[in-house]
UniProtKB/TrEMBL annotation:
Signal peptide: 1-23
Name of protein: TRAP transporter substrate-binding protein
Record's keyword terms, sorted: Signal
Origin species: Halomonas pelophila
Pfam family for this entry, one: DctP
Amino acid sequence: MKGFARTTLALAVSLAVTVGAQAAEFDDMDPITLRLAHVVNEQDGFHIAAEKFETLVEERTQGKVDIELYPNATLGDERTLLEAMQIGAVDMGVITNGPVANFVEEMAVFELPFLFPSPEAAYEVLDGPIGQELLDKLAEVNLKGLAYAERGFRNLTNSERAVTSPSDIDGLRIRVMENPVYVDTFRELGANAIPMAWTEALTAMQQGTIDGQENPVNVIHSFKLYETQAHMTLSRHTYAPAIFVMGMPAWSQLPEAAQAVLAESAQEAAEHERRVNAEMQADQLAALREAGMQIVEEPDIAAFQEAVAPVYEQYGEQFGDYLPRIQEALK
């Protein structure tokens, strides 16, 4: 028993020394404030991730690194934020994967249709060697990728009928993002794919000039799409990551100890957001059902995957070896 007590005491002393050493790393550091921006509101998962990140960083650096949050696009849209990070005008942000892919094309590989069968499969790839390699490529454009948060899986809604297979989509007028992969995906599924801005889509749904759209559950819920869309299919046709990203000018001025804290805290904050999103989604789906939306929970995913095969043939090669490597990792 005495041996156990000595071992326990030794472990406690060792832990105290480690924690003390970590705290001491910041004793001589000059305080710094980092501005973290995003484009959504304070109820969104992006802000939940940012708040968690802020708490972790400030605690772990003994307050020497102060994170200031700028939600609601107060510092600009996502492309503007990324460009500002490159020149040091904004320090960091939580940014949707699509705009980041405009700077490093290979990042768009994650948004190919029906690539990921589940959130867990996406996390395994994103948090593993392939995801890290792509984060590291951001350094080529003067950005520093820290971790993958998420926007989540996108799902189909429409005003006409239940959709369980591609044949049910045939002829439906579906609004999609102004992105060629999304346009071609829905054309292959038989839809009349109509790219348009989101603000225009809301009006078009109300007027009946389009039949449907596709978005994550939280967007479908927050914009009350049940008022115009009677049907929803949990198609999960595209998984959209989001990225904790810094500008290299801000990253380079930090000491190594602070860099390590930021990277570690970004990963923990991203994982926290994923858990919260999952919890929120269950409540949001229940609210949509209560509002009268008919939800198809288990569509014929294999049939959808077969229908979009030409999209892979068209776009796969532009991502180098990343697509086959992801497909191998998912086996």
